[in-house]
Design a protein that fits this description.
CATH topology of the largest domain: TIM Barrel
Shape: globular
Strand content: 5-15%
Number of helices: 24
CATH class of the largest domain: Alpha Beta
Bound molecules: 2'-deoxyguanosine-5'-triphosphate, calcium ion, zinc ion
Structural class: alpha/beta
Distance between the termini: 51 Å
Number of strands: 17
Radius of gyration: 25 Å
Number of domains: 4
CATH architecture of the largest domain: Alpha-Beta Barrel
Strand order of the largest sheet: 11-12-13-14-15-16-17
Largest sheet: 7 strands, parallel
């Protein structure tokens, strides 16, 4: 069982407990456990298989949770999950995925109106039954209707980070298949999209049967969907489809180009080839019968006088225009980042101390880390009030006196309150190094109100950046209504920055918004929002989105050393 599968089961336990109205701290324990496992850089199975190790050595995994995870890995389930599933009808689980409904309110509708399925929920909304329930209103009803679509779509696309786990496992699986000379992922995975519909894999080999036989032994496969002469499609236990194509050396580059796509990018390419009397397909580039390119991807582009586009740019957005002008941006790389500007510690809802987080960030080659714990409005996460924050900053000062060559920034993730304004007074915020502001509450407000709240936060001189500016959660929650153009304008006018939150479920700003920020001259900050030391490893997901948005090192503020960044935000 992969870490993603384990995390999904733990989340399910949390959802079901919440549906039942269980103790919030118990629910939170499962959610934190899921997050810890999801962020773990090595497979849980590897820890369990090693007799010298214990799962409890993972920070945040206690004895109780460790036992349940061991159950999950060895049997696919655990007693608490079985009990909950026996008590709650299975179709109800879909209700829990309706954004904005949430387990608690789903339970009310289930109990009071007997709603068991998404269809019944839609009918109840359309007939106006829902708005009559206590705690619901016409607005809630309308938003449920709108969000039903997301619930129905959820699970159809897989987070890039999970696809990446599968890609690594598949590469490892093919290491002992002598028929395979090379294995490369293509498709939306290679282009770094935030989610993938399915995974496309190319194997360079002559003996297709041997490769497909070996593929069939990959342990996460639940079903073989089709097997032809050189192509095989399977479904994995987590629902993801994987398409494998076996390709000979002379067309490997052409196949890699073709199956990386995007389709829109390929359409443009085909048109350019045609205009030169050439034909291009997954086997090569042809003049008449003669193959003039195909072995190397770069050659396929070169015969059309095009550069080898980074896969992240292949969306038929601006790459051809840039190539024609010779101004293809040199995209930002993970190695360019010098620091991380959004992280939590045990002072609020993080699992590690400031010192542990700092040590881990430093080990990853960073030179600074902003500690940005929650402010008090987020009570559930143990948000800090002014006194606690000032005390935390004293501790940061003390830590910085001990550290050499690394700096912890005094920060906070201050909530933008429902009624406008910030959750902490300016005279406190002014004493920090790095203040990010974010919206957690009042997400259902009108576009005007939310936009005004965010713009006002940008105008506050204490605020350096807005964190996760649209609030979207991939597969779970749509972005709140916000006029991003107005946000970009305000940020440009006030010389503020916007975060690209690198958490694999957020990736907020997304790629398109990153490109827009660049057009407005607004610096983007790529930050992890880490809640434990492994969460600091998510910067690479953010980098992919930044690259898709065409950002260079210069466009990303935390590619600069702290003294330079500090000047940019006008701090002394
Ligand atoms: P996904 O899986 O929905 O996240 O997106 P992709 O881009 O991976 O799409 P997929 O898996 O259907 O196909 C992989 C690539 O293969 C796609 O990006 C371009 C190429 N391709 C597939 N079908 C066609 C087609 O009908 N025409 C062209 N030009 N290219 C295609
Ligand atoms: Ca695909
Ligand atoms: Ca595919
Ligand atoms: Zn945060």
């Amino acid at each position: 069982m992969t870490n993603a599968e384990i995390a999904a089961r733990l989340e399910q336990v949390a959802d079901l407990l919440e549906f039942q109205g269980a103790n919030p701290f118990r629910i939170r324990a499962y959610r934190n456990g899921a997050r810890t496992i999801q962020d773990l850089p090595e497979p849980v199975e590897a820890i369990l298989e090693d007799p010298a190790r214990r799962l409890t050595e993972v920070k945040g995994i206690g004895k109780d949770l460790a036992e349940k995870i061991a159950d999950l890995v060895s049997t696919g389930t655990t007693a608490i999950l079985d009990e909950l599933l026996a008590e709650i009808p299975e179709t109800v689980l879909a209700l829990l995925r309706v954004p904005g409904l949430g387990p608690k309110r789903a339970a009310v509708l289930h109990r009071e109106l007997g709603i068991n399925t998404l269809d019944q929920l839609r009918q109840a909304c359309q007939s106006g039954q829902v708005r009559q329930m206590k705690g619901f209103g016409a607005k809630t009803e309308a938003s449920i209707l709108e969000n039903l679509e997301i619930a129905e779509e959820a699970g159809k696309r897989t987070y890039w980070a999970i696809a990446d786990e599968i890609v690594e496992a598949l590469k490892a699986h093919f290491v002992d298949c002598p028929a395979v000379k090379r294995i490369e992922p293509a498709g939306s995975y290679r282009r770094g999209r935030d989610t993938v519909g399915d995974l496309d894999l190319l194997a360079l080999a002559e003996d297709a049967e041997a490769v497909m036989d070996h593929f069939a032994r990959f342990s996460s496969i639940s079903q073989v969907l089709l097997r032809g002469g050189t192509k095989m499609s399977v479904r994995l236990g987590i629902g993801l489809q994987v398409d494998l194509r076996v390709v000979p050396a002379e067309s490997f580059g052409a196949a890699l180009q073709y199956f990386t796509g995007s389709q829109a990018h390929n359409v443009v390419l085909r048109g350019m080839a045609k205009a030169r009397g050439l034909k291009i397909n997954e086997y090569g580039v042809f003049r008449g019968e003669a193959r003039i390119a195909g072995e190397e991807e770069a050659d396929v582009y070169a015969v059309l006088d095009l550069p080898l586009f980074p896969p992240e740019l292949r969306e038929a957005r601006r790459e051809f225009e840039w190539a024609a002008a010779g101004s293809l941006p040199e995209l930002v790389r993970l190695e360019d980042l010098r620091g991380d500007l959004h992280a939590h510690s045990t002072w609020s809802d993080g699992m590690a101390t400031i010192e542990e987080m700092a040590a881990a960030a430093r080990q990853r080659g960073l030179a600074y880390l902003a500690m940005t714990d929650h402010s008090k409005r987020v009570a559930m996460a143990g948000g800090l009030d002014a006194d606690q924050l000032l005390r935390q900053w004293e501790e940061v000062d003390a830590i910085n006196r001990r550290l050499k060559g690394f700096r912890v920034l005094k920060g906070v993730e201050v909530d933008i309150l429902e009624g406008g304004g910030l959750d902490l007074p300016d005279e406190v915020l002014a004493q920090g190094d790095w203040i990010v502001a974010s919206v957690h509450y009042g997400q259902n407000q009108s576009r005007e109100r939310i936009t005004r709240r965010v713009v006002e936060a940008i105008e506050n001189p204490c605020v350096c950046a807005i964190a996760h500016p649209t609030g979207r959660l991939l597969n779970q929650r749509k972005a709140y209504e916000i006029d991003l153009e107005a946000v970009f304008r305000a940020a440009a006018d006030n010389r503020k920055m916007l975060e690209l939150n690198a958490h694999p479920k957020r990736l907020d700003l997304d790629d398109v918004a990153c490109a827009a920020a660049r057009n407005y001259g607004v610096p983007v900050v790529i930050a992890t929002d880490a809640h434990n030391i492994d969460g600091l490893g998510t910067l690479r997901y953010g980098i992919l989105q930044a690259r898709r948005g065409g950002l260079t090192r210069n466009d990303v503020a935390n590619s600069r050393p702290w003294p330079e960044l500090r000047k940019m935000i006008g701090k002394k």
